[in-house]
């Protein structure tokens, strides 16, 4: 006899021997029966013993004193040098966790509970009624009396309004106390429609400025009378003045629309005139690379009057009926000639894509999807532990050009299962080849400021060579080149100089660029004007050709003195030794050259446009929500700064590694919880001298303590040293990552 769902019950138990147990049940149902019951299951007995031992360890940890911890460390320290590679190979951490108590006791304020949860309620877009209901449910679940607590809609509304204002003032005061020295301004406008039908043109205004400003800061999303450059300029200037960063602006990031880039009435032109000095024009690189693929699509597929591409819409509608098996896909057809340009370019992109997938350089889902599709289409493989699968197509309107690339690659790989005529098959294949050979890598590298000039020159050079491969390739290349010549923003004198901070460029080119710059007298002032783009037809300029008098502008804006650019007197191989160069390099590498942050600001006001009606409260709300998103993660995961003690196992013995991890995380040092990212390749592949140096430093500190008679001072000093060692290991990891 057995339960009807015995198979599911056994499977869900996750016991190692559940399959044998189920097979035994099937054998017992046969006639005659096969097998018989034996003695107790020894495997389960051992499993239960280990479970009880873990519970005892948890109790020990709760009652552990400082003296006992130091004694544990002392017992192991005498044998640290005896730790062998065999010990490391045999070490497998137990996957355990500290059980949570069934009941906890907390103190809830009776008069301000709604105020205390108002910021979270604002961030989650919870109504006043919903906020009161959740607070009531929480109090009742703990056995509290609702009559003892101030709970009402009017109280909640009053508290939330007051809390928004107080928090917004606090954010502003903190900003004023820690203003970044240099900022780049971002803006983007959109017509916002509320539920009551009211329509307002708004402009999202932010500033960025790494390394002083870790993430872009929203200044506000005010209402403007219209979307003209003048209206946007007035709003930007007003907020820059309010947040007192007008004098700190060194650059402008914008979409390349006429209202922004117009030579007379464009917002960027008017802003520069209002500031009274020349600044960097940092056109959004995502925007114009999306324009490149849009023009290629139109040249190959043809123009359409519909806001939605008919072919993409048909593919989305038939998605559920398609066979999405990842075998027997229609992939890239590699040329027979391995010396051909297309073959060499394909190998370059494939190697680049696989290396960045392995290092997880692109955390955003849409970026990772594009690079995965590129690698698979070129016949590559994903990193171990990650399986490729097709994702359901997303939005496909003309405002999201990145999805053209994703749709095209999906359609090409599934072209034998998705009904296409011969003309459409040829068109999709042509566009897919362009995407994987050129667009994917250029687009995904477009947010890096220092490599922008190099990427643009390589893209243009690749198009010039690609147009010689055939008629369809010529159509693609001509469309892309025509679009490129309208957006040579990063090949101007002002921005071409950024290439000297790109370590991927050879020492020859970087040194030659600086040698040419040194021959040009440094101006004391710069005229405000729209950057002049280079003109070329048959010859492509080199990085050296981009250097001119206005290349000094970046150093003028960053207020570099003659002493602070002394590194220019040396070859580029020695620049990293100068602190002033490293300071400039960090600013340039952290410079935002895409307008994604402004688009997120537009998305923020779109999501919270119907919460309040008062404009002042609307701006307070946006500040509160942005701050809460940066401070609190709601993804349901426990986030640790360090990911498990196993990464120290290569450097230290078991107990030392566990104790160091306990210092960092307060996890159980007897049964610490391992994580999926415990084993860092950067550490396991470290050179032996780095390992020995860290271990030697640790041993020297240990011997400096009187471990036979430890005291509280020794314990606290040891803990402080552990944090210093963590900083050292982080530095080693960063250096290895850069290499």
Question: Can you offer a commentary on this structure?
Answer:
The chain is mainly alpha-helical and 739 residues long. The protein folds into 4 domains: 50 residues, no CATH class; 133 residues, no CATH class; 143 residues, Ribonuclease H-like superfamily/Ribonuclease H (Nucleotidyltransferase, domain 5); 303 residues, no CATH class. Strands 1, 2, 3, 4, 5 and 6 form a 6-stranded mixed sheet that branches. Strand 1 and strand 2 form a beta hairpin.
> Tell me, what's the shape?
globular
Q: In DSSP terms, counting alpha (H) and pi (I) runs of 4 or more, how many helices? A: 30
Mean pLDDT: 80
Bin the helical content. 40-55%
Oligomer: single chain
Q: How much strand content do the residues show?
A: 5-15%
- What is the domain total for the residues? 4
Q: Report the strand count.
A: 6
Structural class: mainly alpha
Poorly predicted regions: 76-96, 636-647, 666-689
Radius of gyration, in Å, reads 31 Å
CA(first)-CA(last) distance: 64 Å
Query: Sheet bearing the most strands, described?
Result: 6 strands, mixed
Describe the SSE topology.
Blueprint: H1 6-13, H2 18-28, H3 42-62, H4 66-77, H5 85-90, H6 113-116, H7 118-123, H8 128-141, H9 153-177, E1 183-193, E2 199-209, E3 213-220, E4 223-224, H10 229-242, E5 249-254, H11 258-261, H12 267-275, E6 280-283, H13 285-301, H14 310-317, H15 341-358, H16 365-377, H17 402-413, H18 422-444, H19 452-466, H20 471-484, H21 493-496, H22 507-518, H23 553-557, H24 579-589, H25 596-607, H26 615-631, H27 654-665, H28 681-684, H29 688-703, H30 712-738
Parallel strand pairs: 1-5, 5-6
Antiparallel strand pairs: 1-2, 2-3, 2-4
Helix pairs in contact: 1-2, 4-27, 8-9, 9-26, 10-12, 13-18, 13-20, 15-16, 15-18, 16-17, 16-18, 17-18, 19-20, 29-30
């Amino acid at each position: 006899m057995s339960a009807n769902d015995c198979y599911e019950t056994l499977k869900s138990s996750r016991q190692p021997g559940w399959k044998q147990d189920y097979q035994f049940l099937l054998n017992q149902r046969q006639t005659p029966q096969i097998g018989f019951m034996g003695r107790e299951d020894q495997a389960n007995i051992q499993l239960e013993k280990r479970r009880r031992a873990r519970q005892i360890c948890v109790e020990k940890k709760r009652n552990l004193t400082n003296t006992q911890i130091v004694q544990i460390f002392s017992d192991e320290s005498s044998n640290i040098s005896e730790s062998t590679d065999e010990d490391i190979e045999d070490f497998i951490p137990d996957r355990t966790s500290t059980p949570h108590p069934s009941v906890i006791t907390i103190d809830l304020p009776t008069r301000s509970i709604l105020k205390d949860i108002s910021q979270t309620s604002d961030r989650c877009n919870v109504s006043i009624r919903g906020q009161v209901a959740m607070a009531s449910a929480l109090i009742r679940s703990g056995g509290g009396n609702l009559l003892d607590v101030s709970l009402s809609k009017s109280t909640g509304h009053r508290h939330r309004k007051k809390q928004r204002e107080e928090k917004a003032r606090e954010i502003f005061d903190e900003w004023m106390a820690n203003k970044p020295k240099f900022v780049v301004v971002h803006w983007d406008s959109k017509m916002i429609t509320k539920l009551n039908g009211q329509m307002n043109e708004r402009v999202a205004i932010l500033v960025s400025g790494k390394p002083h400003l870790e993430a872009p800061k929203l200044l506000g999303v005010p209402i403007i009378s219209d979307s003209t450059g003048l209206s946007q300029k007035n709003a930007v200037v007003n907020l820059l003045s309010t947040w007192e960063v007008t004098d700190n602006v060194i650059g402008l990031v914008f979409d390349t629309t006429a209202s922004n880039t117009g030579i007379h009435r464009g917002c960027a032109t008017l802003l520069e005139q209002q500031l009274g000095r020349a600044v960097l024009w940092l056109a959004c690189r995502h925007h114009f690379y999306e324009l490149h693929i849009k023009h290629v699509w139109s040249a190959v597929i043809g123009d359409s009057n519909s806001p939605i591409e008919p072919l993409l819409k048909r593919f989305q509608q038939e998605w559920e009926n398609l066979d999405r098996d990842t075998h027997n896909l229609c992939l890239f057809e590699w040329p027979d000639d391995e010396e051909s340009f297309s073959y060499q370019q394909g190998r370059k992109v494939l190697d680049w894509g696989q290396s960045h997938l392995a290092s997880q350089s692109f955390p955003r889902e849409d970026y990772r999807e594009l690079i995965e599709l590129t690698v698979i289409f070129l016949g590559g493989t994903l990193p171990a532990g990650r399986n490729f699968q097709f994702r359901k197509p997303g939005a496909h309107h003309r405002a999201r050009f990145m999805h053209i690339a994703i749709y095209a690659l999906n359609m090409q790989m599934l072209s034998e299962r998705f009904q296409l005529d011969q003309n459409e098959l040829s068109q999709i294949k042509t566009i897919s080849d362009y995407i994987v050979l050129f667009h994917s890598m250029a687009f995904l590298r477009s947010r890096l400021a220092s490599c922008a000039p190099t990427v643009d020159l390589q893209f243009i050079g690749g198009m010039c060579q690609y147009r010689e491969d055939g008629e369809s390739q010529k159509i693609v290349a001509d469309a892309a080149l025509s679009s490129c010549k309208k957006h040579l923003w990063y090949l101007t004198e002002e921005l071409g100089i950024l290439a000297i901070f790109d370590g991927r460029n050879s020492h020859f080119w970087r040194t030659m660029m600086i040698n040419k710059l040194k021959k040009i007298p440094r101006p004391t002032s710069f005229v405000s004007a729209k950057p002049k783009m280079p003109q070329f037809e048959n010859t492509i300029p080199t990085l050296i050709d981009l250097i001119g008098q206005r290349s000094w502008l970046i150093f003028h804006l960053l207020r570099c003195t003659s002493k602070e650019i002394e590194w220019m007197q040396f070859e580029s191989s020695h620049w990293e030794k100068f602190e002033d160069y490293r300071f400039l390099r960090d600013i340039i590498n952290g410079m935002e050259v895409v307008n994604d942050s402004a688009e997120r600001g537009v998305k923020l006001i779109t999501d919270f446009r119907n919460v309040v009606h008062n404009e002042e409260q609307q701006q307070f709300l946006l500040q509160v929500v942005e701050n809460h998103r940066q401070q609190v993660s709601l993804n349901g995961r426990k986030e640790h700064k360090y990911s498990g003690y196993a990464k120290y196992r290569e450097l230290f013995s078991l107990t030392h590694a566990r104790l160091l991890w306990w210092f960092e995380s307060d996890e159980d040092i007897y049964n610490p919880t391992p994580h999926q990212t415990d084993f860092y390749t950067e550490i396991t592949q470290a050179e032996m001298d780095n390992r020995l140096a860290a271990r030697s430093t640790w041993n020297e500190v240990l011997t400096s303590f009187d471990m036979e008679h430890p005291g509280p001072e020794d314990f606290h000093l040891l803990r402080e040293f552990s944090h210093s060692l963590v900083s050292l290991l982080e530095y080693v990891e960063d250096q290895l990552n850069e290499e």
